[in-house]
Amino acid sequence: MVSTAAEIAASVRAGQLDPVQVTKEALDRIAAADGVVGAFRRVRSAEALEEAAAVAARPDLASLPLAGVPVAVKDVMAIAGEYASHGSLAGSSSPVEEDGVIAARLRAAGAVLVGLTRVPELCVWPMSDTPDGIARNPWDPTYASGGSSGGSAAAVAAGLVPLAHGTDGMGSVRLPAAMCGLVGLKPGAGELSEGGWFGMSVHGPLATTVEDAALLYSVLAGDPSLASVPSPAAVRIGMSTTVPLLHTPVPRELVSAVSQAAGLLASAGHPVSPAAPRYPATMVLGMTARWLAGPAEQARDFDFPRFQRRTRAHVRAGRLLSRAGVIRSSTRDRWVARAAEFFESHDVLMTPTLSHWPVKAGRWHERRWLTNVLPSTRLAGFTGQWNFAGYPAITVPVGRSARSGLPTSVQLVGRPGEESLLLGLAAQLESANPWPRTARS
């Protein structure tokens, strides 16, 4: 089994591991398994080995937080010498000359960027397939690995790399993390805001351990202090398994995971009680409008006729909503006020991450827009509202389905600025209920 990122970095800093050898082993794992998993759009084999050699020669090697760690990067980031496809054939394929902020921070920390991971076109969907491949769930490759950070989740859950970068606009880190049995953190709105979807999209880590998630989070945020995971004192946890507003049925095993996690956190000294925010009816309209209009704004830089047909329909709908003026700050303000009201009497909200099981893996990009929308909205009932509010949230594995073998998980939501509290609670769950780190465990 692949070592954790923290273990690799510590051994490289101590001179016990060679970054080039670590990278070779990661590339060998990718070569052996990615034909099935489909995690990567582009594997940077030669470039990664050169980067690893450069890391080994750095005079500051002994202080690098990600020294020699192979990291997968979502195919939306600017990496010098590469282009970000955003899962589309309609954009530019000209390599950029300079790293963006995320790639620059990863390199500065000593990470080796081994490849760009598969995403759905414009990162709209919770399934990550493109004309040249399908990102599959390593626990059962007949299922999708999620989206839009599905390739990143598949790469980590398959043990190809210990860490991956993702972005989350409506659940795009948490949903694939839940489907693939990983820790996935969506930071609150702020420094890690990705800029897309009217501020709803943020950068976040996918990892097999809480320690690794905190480590990558600290590097992405440019704040080393965030790598420290606290041991939280007692906090008030509200627990809900009802899909906000829609009240659609949630599979029994996904509900049971919340009950199990509630028992574990109660045993750790946290008061847990049934509770949920007073979700305003306008919340669904507000976040859905941004899910449509955000990609429509992004599409201005693409060749519209070359989009997949589901994307063309999505962009057309988004443009109509933008012209209709439905993107209003008042809608978000009303929801933020209700969320703040809930967090006056509770410190954390716990829900399932998924409101339904993952869909089967397939060529979803060849299907109609509505055929993609229906299963997408069915499984993402608990996530997008926290992007809309700008609150941090984390997915934590709990167990596996007795029927399908797929992972189960919970979502923890906290107040703005309390990412470290969420990581601390996740660490308590990890300590009380260790999970298999990868599908190969």
Automatic annotation (TrEMBL):
GO molecular function, one term: catalytic activity
SUPFAM superfamilies in alphabetical order: Amidase signature (AS) enzymes
Domain Amidase: 22-423
Signal peptide stretch: none
Family per similarity comment: Belongs to the amidase family.
The protein's name in its UniProt record: Amidase
Species whose genome carries this gene: Amycolatopsis pretoriensis
Lineage: Bacteria, Bacillati, Actinomycetota, Actinomycetes, Pseudonocardiales
